[in-house]
Design brief:
The protein has a single domain, classed as Response regulator (Rossmann fold), CATH 3.40.50. α1 links the parallel β1 and β2. The chain is an alpha/beta fold.
Length: about 150
Amino acid sequence: MNYNNNKKFTLLIANDDEDTRFLMQEAMREVRLAIKIEFVENGEEVLDYLYRRGEYAGSSNWHQPDLILLDLNMPRLDGRETLTSIRADPDLQQIPVAILTTSHRSGDILLCYRLGANSFISKPVTFEGLVEVMKTLSQYWFEIVSLPRRDL
């Protein structure tokens, strides 16, 4: 039995578009797993969250994410730069990172995998498609695969 089935997961979603964040939150309501979702708006906020800086410093409700969903095109620090920073840090590089973006460009796909992305997903254009992507993504990452334990 996969140990993942008995724990609550933390999903960190980085996306600068408020409407997209709302739709993703609504889509995740359809997923019947114990998932805590944290939203940030750009790559700098991803790193603040991961390093517990700024508004995340000293938070008793903070959990290291089990999965990070990154948009590529965000202000301040984009998804590529954020992914590079995560993969450069030995304390963070074990966290799976999936790119969820509007891009379909083969150059973006190749670059993201070269930078260490675990998945590259092009955002669907309908809400129903987004629900299906979020269900499949959650099932895969939180029910099928074994994730690194946080206490290691």
